[in-house]
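WARN retry 2 of 3 for item q-0093 after timeout on previous attempt; input resubmitted unchanged.
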Amino acid sequence: MKNFPASRFALIASALLGTALLGACTISKIQGSKELTEKSLPSVTLPNQFSASSNTTGMQVDTGWLKQFNDAELNELATEALKNNPDIRVMAARRIQAESLIDAAGGAQYPGLNAIGNVGGKAGSSGSGLTGYFIGANWELDLWGRVRTSVAAAEQNSKAINADQDAARLSLIATLTKSVWFARNLQDQSSLANQNAEAAAKFAELMQVREKVGASSTSEVSAALSNAAQSKEAAINAAQTRDQSLRAVEVLVGRYPKAEPLKTTFLPDLPPPVSPGLPADLLERRPDVIAAEARVNSAFYLADEKRLARLPKISLTAGFGYINSQIFSLINGANTSFGVGANASVPLFMGGTIEAQIAYQNAEAQAALANYGKIVLTAFSDVENALSGESNWRDRSKQLEIQLKEQKRIMQNTNAELKVGRVDQRQVQQQIISTNNSEMRWRQGKVDALAQRINLYLALGGSAEE
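OK item q-0093 returned
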């Protein structure tokens, strides 16, 4: 092997010396939520605590909120949904794509190795009878941090996609939870609606008997028959709504929508209210806020990458080759060579392409920053609405519970009066309908209050699972 010229060693030494500068070249710092909030919402004063939580008392908001309801069937359905729901599988594929992009961007940090080979005889297409191969390596020295910036952008994009998947999981569990309770409530409401239809039909029969003996008018009978028809229609509608809600649950779980009844119509008790003075930085747990923050950082990294594209690209090269010909006589027969070197490329004139890319990516970064501010404001609105909404629904549920309790007392008194002959079956059937209606309103109020608690968990972020 021939000795390398001194100039070549000097070139290699200079290039290797440049690699020492890698440690001194740093890429942009990741911007945190506080810094991004100040930039995206410069004219908005955000509180340290949510205002709607100042007058509540109770337990701390925690992650793994699904376990608070002690609902075995719901837990089973949630596990099945996370396994079979198509949206979750789509997001899982997106996560793999994001991780692949990180690997692809990071590959540029390492030397690339390529091989070229050729085999030819005297009758080959080139007529030269050449046989040879070349193995070459190329390594771009990331002196300015362009490659590392690209990797950082890919990592932030992957973080955003991972947060999107967390948001999808959380949204799926929350939607499934509310759908299950809603379907259970409709199962009970359908049963109560059938009881109302039966009571209304019996009341109409009693009115027809009274008409025959002259105790009721034709108009009273017609009104009773009309009410009976309305009650029957309501029962039919309730059954249809029940089946639709059951199918919605099955679709979320990933089953064929057969409208099969749930195992139970159990509705859990509403957990205690949240503690007062919830810190506003709880929003940093929200997957959509995490994703928005990562997308802002990714956009700014990409903008830096475009700006760094204006700087020279310096690469080290090395290669080994072999060549032989069956036609031409090469010096000393077959020839082999090995060499190393360095090269540099500088974009002198690109017709404004790089400047346009920089302007585009800068605008993209500003749009991502503005969207971050929008998401933060939406998050604050979600929490304040959920806190006040739960408080209102909790108070309303208490009033509905009082109404149901008193209506059941009226029902008991009516049955007692029937035994002593003070009322007849007409009053009993009317009170059955009134009691069922009160129970329907109470159960619906309980479902609504539970749904508000789920909305609060969603607004505050965190995981539904352990």
